[in-house]
Sequence to fold (274 residues):
Amino acid sequence: MAPSRRPGSGPAASAPESLLALKRRARRINKALAEKYPYAHAELDFRNPFELVVATVLSAQTTDVLVNQVTRILFARYPDARAMSEADPNELEAILQPTGFFRAKTKNVMALSTRLVDEYDGVVPGRLEDLVTLPGVGRKTANVVLGNAFGIPGITVDTHFGRLARRFGWTTSEDPVQIEFDVAGLFEPKDWTMLSHRVVFHGRRACHSRKPACGACPVANWCPSYGLGETDPAKAAKLLKYELAPGNELLLDRLLAETHRAAEIRMESQRRLP
Ligand code: SF4
Fold:
């Protein structure tokens, strides 16, 4: 639904915001995003923590859609860490080629699989401090895996999350770790993982880097950056992408189905935790 917000009527036009007011506004944004994107979820397909850690490593500099196409082939051929660690590098490179930077990704995927086999009996560890020691796995990937495969709260700061957190006034930083800490201070840990999905969903669909669709934005009332993009509701609606784009309503059913599957996978992984 188009927002009732008028330019300059929100926090940007007010006196400096107290921490309490900032927290309240941040939580209203999260609530509005939850209502808009009840189907927000990890957009990478996975059936277990190993598949998610590999898919996340492969997602660097490419789209989740492309990674999902590649991992279908990849995990049919190499279903676990042991099989991946013993892969033929040339064959693996050929499979990973569409994702770009495939030589480096092949090395990382093989090295992290070998380390999982050597150090963790082939099982992905469920602690941040262990995950970040795996080749190719940084804090962002580790938080994706913890939040989505283990149900352990984590804020995932990618380019969309950082941009929106700054536009929302939740942080002024460009540094992913600082952004993570700034935003973590505004929300309960239980909300971190889903908040990350919702913010990234919103960044991909509406609050674009160059042309944010302010006139069709569900959080316009609480966003100090309202007016940065198109404010005319009809013109803004044309900027929306994916299932929100005009004519794409049927995609919603598919997203709802995948959300249920993602929750099942999370619960299954949690049951396996010691
Ligand atoms: S689209 Fe506009 S109003 Fe909505 S979050 Fe982005 S900058 Fe704020």
Q: What stands out?
A: The chain has a mean pLDDT of 90. Residues 167, 206-207, 212-214, 217, 219-220, 223, 225-226, 228-229 surround iron/sulfur cluster (CB under 6 Å). The two ends are 45 Å apart (CA to CA).
